Amino acid sequence: MKEKDRRSKNASVTAAKGRGAEARGGHHEQRHPPVKQGGFKARSGGLPAKVAEEKGDRQRSAHEAAPTRPVRQRTGDKPAETVPLILETAATAGYHLIDSGNGEKLEQYGPYRIVRPEAQALWPKALPASIWEKADAIFTGDTDEDGMGRWRFPREVLGETWPMQLLDTDFLGRFTSFRHVGVFPEQLAHWSWMKDQVATAGRPLKVLNLFGYTGVASLIAAKAGAEVTHVDASKKAIGWARENQTLARAEKLPIRWICDDAMKFIQREERRGSRYDVILTDPPKFGRGPNGEVWQLFDHLAAMLDICREILSPEARGLVLTAYSIRASFYSIHELMRETMRGRGGRVESGELIIREGGLDGKEPGRALSTSLFSRWVPK
User: Fold this and answer.
1) What letters, b where the CB count within 10 A reaches 16 and e where it falls short, cover 312-351?
2) Per UniProt, what is one Pfam family of this protein (predicted)?
3) Residue 288: its pLDDT value, please?
4) Global pTM?
5) Domain containing 128 — which CATH number?
6) Greater confidence, 54 or 361?
7) Among the residues of 23-66, which ranges form H helices?
8) DSSP readout, 216-259?
9) Where residue 295 falls among pLDDT bands split at 50, 70, 90?
């Protein structure tokens, strides 16, 4: 971890570049252009033959869309439904949304107050400008999800990373050139649900984390007692996840880190007969895999969910889909999930993830900021 550079104040620095696919966790560059990544390193203690097969498949299929089998025509009753379901992230130790408005949000990440663009914040700011001006870091430049920019540090220049903790799991926050900081706190609603499923199962659950980003969800699942397979196309994201694993003192936990295209990986898992009890999937709207494979959300989502259904275990506890920055209603992914899970019973819960403002101390509930759509199948 870098120490703070105190040589200058009010400095503007360019954040670390090269996030690519790790933007929102995924084997594709979620909402970000492709960038050059570092080297791949298989998890020690893994299955060498399996890793070699995966690596060989990637090399043979460079720069092509991942071929998919036809989507199965499902029969049987649709699952029951709960709509809309609003899952809220309120203030918690390690994070809270302080204020939002005029296209920006002011957040507390561990020791730092951070200002970033937020298109959903259509209302005026509630707190005075003097509060916003005391932020430790402000993202400036291109405010589009795909746009690169710079971080300005009004008080003192900060290091690239800093320690964070959520759900008793340690990890690194990081200032990136795409305005993201290594964690998406609205996912705490899903992570808390997943943690409960693992803790109450009475057996080790197998969790698949597709588009796994920096590994926070994988670490939370493993610490709760799950056997985790984490898939992400970005070698840089996998490296960051391993850093988080070390920081969390979780090197001995059963996590398999896979750098691969998610579609190709789950198709191989289907052929192998692999099964998972919980699947988290957070696909981008567009991206490219590690060998140039093309991903388009609206073209490939139905096939991806169809394959995920096939690799759910008979005693599965849930399939979770989150979708960011798409022009669609949550009803679109809700109906897709219900069609996918026809004949499996259970219930499909769909709606939005929101973060609630908490004021300076995190204890003054304010407006709700919508962050993403989701759909979740549960067995009952």
Assistant:
1) beeebbbbbbbbbbbeeebebbbbbbbbbbbebeeebbbb
2) Methyltrans_SAM
3) 78
4) 0.83
5) 2.60.40.1180
6) 361
7) 48-60
8) HHHHHHHHHT-EEEEEES-HHHHHHHHHHHHHTT-TTS-EEEEE
9) confident
Structural contact between residues 126 and 106, judged by C-beta atoms closer than 8 angstroms: no
Q: Is the pLDDT confidence value at 61 over 50?
A: no
Residue 280: CB atoms within 10 Å: 27
Contacts of 328 (CB under 8 A, 6+ apart): 373
Structural domain including 338 reads: 48-88+180-378
Q: Do residues 318 and 378 lie in contact, with contact meaning Cβ atoms separated by under 8 Å?
A: yes
Retrieve residue 160's tokens: 């690239």
Q: Are 262 and 283 in contact (CB under 8 A)?
A: yes
Report CA 46 to chain centroid distance, whole Å.
24
- Contact between 75 and 343 under an 8 Å Cβ cutoff? The reply is yes
247 and 127, same structural domain? no
Indicate whether 172 belongs to any domain.
no
Are 303 and 361 part of one and the same domain?
Answer: yes
Q: Which is more confidently placed, 210 or 326?
A: 210
The total number of residues shown for the chain amounts to 380
Coil vs helix vs strand at 371: strand
Coil, strand or helix: which one is 151? strand
Query: How many independent structural domains does the chain possess?
Result: 2
